[in-house]
Amino acid sequence: MRKYLAQFASRVVAKGRFRELQRMHAYEYRPLEECRGWQRSLLYSMLKYSVENSPYYQKIARERSITLTEDGITDQLTKFPVLTKDIIINERERIKVSPFKKEFFRDTTGGTTGEPVMFYKDVLSKESRTASSLLFYEWAGRREGEKLVKLWGSEKEILTGSKGARGWISRYILNTTTLNAFRMTPDTMRHYVSVINREKPKVIEAYVQSLYELAKFIETNHLPIFSPNGIIVSAGTLYPPLKEVIERVFKAKVYNRYGSREVGGVACSCEKDEGLHINIFTSYIEILNDRLEPCPPEELGGIYITTLTNYVMPLIRYKIGDLGAWSKNQHCSCGRGLPLLRRVEGREMNVFRTRSGRIVPGEFFIHFIGVVFNKNYISKFQVIQEDYDLVVVKVVISDGAGFARYQDDIVASIRTVMGADCRVKFERVTNIESAASGKYHYTISKLK
């Protein structure tokens, strides 16, 4: 019954989401060059709209004498400057299309590359993002409305102890059960195992490291666990040893998904696991070296994304802060005509541990410091666990008064998961450097 209720809601209440998913289905298995042609058409439409309606891009087009034609759009894209998080912060209102007559809303990046940023999204981008999730669920073996268990961050539950009406809709209409990845103790992990065994989900969706820790706990304690059709992981690098443990314990295939708040679902692996298929309907990707030259297949470079659906605030050549490489073979044996990334790297994290055995994923700090309590007063942060009862937070402050107002709330939220006796120290710094590899370590645990 819930399955059909969710499908009804998608087709009647959220018509845009359903249309976007149908469009993805229509092109999913078409030839690679045809899919690339459709993507170039979307890219042309977005760039043309941007230079006609965004003050920021209007100025760039004038200064750089950019003339757009659909046939040469990929070459013309390279005339646009790279868009960084600092530029978004300083030029946000000029990048935004104004007046924008359709509905739009604010959102904030989680700060997975260390720099949380506020931006605008319109309804189309929201619907496309949801459609992307539904498409990737299908690849993993779940149709819309079928049971889904998420081992995910639930900051509301930590702050209020209740999921409210939104949680009720998720559980009973969308058939989704969320297990809080921010509250992982031996007792809660045993409870999570019982929930998974009771719900028997078609798909489990989880933070990479949170599910890895749960899998190790299950294996160590010899617990029986239900095997879903598939498992989707994101918000971290899926290293081969982590994947091997998760697949061995759950006896299910792991699908590696890549995306972010500001650009939505960018890519996901399929059942053949020959790379990550790019969602050509929402993103155009460049992989560039330090000289902003295209990287050849297999060579690691910076990922630059142009969004193809967010018309209220176009992001052109956005430096997302991750590293990636193209697959040498763009033709996956699954038959999908969607281009392939070989791998994505750059979101490096460490789980934290309390003396009592609780596991706290890096995503907790991203949510609370980067989103929940960040009202544009922190431009960059890094959290370091020096000891079981000592956490150091390095912060680059953009608004001292704002930071002072929320500093106690940040401390309280950290102590909620790390323990009431945990000492939280703030270090105000002017910058936080990336590692030599180019990766940004936004959480570091010094525990052995």
What descriptors fit this protein?
Rossmann fold, 2 domains, 25% strand, globular, 14 helices, alpha/beta, 11-stranded mixed beta sheet, 448 residues, 4-stranded mixed beta sheet, GMP Synthetase, Chain A, domain 3
Describe this structure in words.
Helix 1 packs across helix 2. Strand 6, helix 12 and strand 7 form a beta-alpha-beta unit. The chain folds into two domains: 345 residues, Rossmann fold (3-Layer(aba) Sandwich), CATH 3.40.50; 94 residues, GMP Synthetase, Chain A, domain 3, CATH 3.30.300. The chain is globular. The protein has an eleven-stranded mixed β-sheet with strand order 4-3-5-6-7-8-9-13-12-11-10, sandwiched between helices. The chain has a four-stranded mixed β-sheet with strand order 19-18-17-21, with helices on one face. It has a two-stranded antiparallel sheet with strand order 1-2. The chain has 448 residues and is of the alpha/beta class.
